Amino acid sequence: MPRTNPRRRDALADAAVELTAVAGVGGVTHRAVDRAAHVPIGTTANYFPSRDELLSAAAHRVAEVHLAESMTATAAAAANQAGDAAGQLTDLLAASLVTAATTHRTRYLAIYELQLEAQRRPALAGALAKLSEIAEAQTQAMHLALRDAGAPPGAVPLLITLYGGALFMLVTGPGPIDAAVVRRLVEAMVTGARSTG
Amino acid sequence: MPRTNPRRRDALADAAVELTAVAGVGGVTHRAVDRAAHVPIGTTANYFPSRDELLSAAAHRVAEVHLAESMTATAAAAANQAGDAAGQLTDLLAASLVTAATTHRTRYLAIYELQLEAQRRPALAGALAKLSEIAEAQTQAMHLALRDAGAPPGAVPLLITLYGGALFMLVTGPGPIDAAVVRRLVEAMVTGARSTG
DNA sequence: TATGTTCCACAACAACTGTTGTGGAATAGG
DNA sequence: CCTATTCCACAACAGTTGTTGTGGAACATA
What we know:
Strand content of chain A: under 5%
Mean pLDDT of chain A: 89
CATH class of the domain at 59-195 in chain A: Mainly Alpha
Low-confidence stretches of chain A: none
CATH architecture of the domain at 59-195 in chain A: Orthogonal Bundle
CATH topology of the domain at 59-195 in chain A: Tetracycline Repressor, domain 2
Oligomer: homodimer
Radius of gyration of chain A: 19 Å
Helix content of chain A: over 70%
């Protein structure tokens, strides 16, 4: 059985993720990953014998990296907790949106590519499901902030949907990211979510 | 020069759009379109000599069909105009979201596929730009309704972004479309957009 | 050192791709 | 009926794909 060296595995999966973003799902082939990762032709095919496994590995990897990064981000956000809950939530989400749409833009492009491919590839859908779980678990702070701000239950999943949708529009949209525009967007999202009955 | 019979052209482009939705951009090949449209192998290659032209034709076609349909929808919506502007807008958007995410789901899947492919295919980006123009022109009624409801300028593009993002989440999300959830989503969007300063 | 096991580089396969060219059918003009 | 032009079905090309198999290197164990 192949696929044994964990370091190589992750490196190949990372290369696959990057390839997904810059070349699309269609550009993710065993040989293309080999070239991108500067390993001999055939290596990727040894670690991920089928294309399903290759794409699922990319999905798992992107979830793994995302989880690792968001844990530190949450810790930092939890550090400063004072006053105006809704305002803090707005600040947090606006900053999060901007960095997601700029610094991590290629990562989300890859995620969207995989998300669409998952429509016709059940194994990929399973791998991507973990990403949604992360997003939900990630919003414990959001729960508290909204509860403090007097929002009804059900406001959190609503906010998550609005946030995720806005991120897609920003990432795939034409223009550069305008922080002021993002700020207004988040204000509208939070206000709207709080007002829901 | 090929590509002459307009009816055949549209039929091939339609087949390309459907293929984009069910097989992804990567599945849209000359021969695959031939098979899907039940025409002899080689036909699509005669009408759209390069892959760029083929995908761009699919984008143009999806915009064309979308425009034709949305014009009748707008006419119907403009028919009943009375009272409570914001409430009417909410009704209109909620109904629009539901049909977009259910009846026209495959169309939007195709659009998202093409949108991502356009990131690395300038010709496609140009073809898709017309879709955004349609969406903006489509919102004259939205402008009026929001103005009547005392919303600030800039609320309309904000609402369009929220709407487009929510549609993506609904179309690519796992579960079926729940009309009540969509309703709450739209209420939050409209409330949020109106409150923006 | 001998041995068994893990890992990997490479070859080979059939199938599919985009693109281009060509010959003939269909059609229109006279 | 003849001719010229438009349209299209098909063949051929070199290249790439997923997948599988194989032989040997590297390694640990004894």
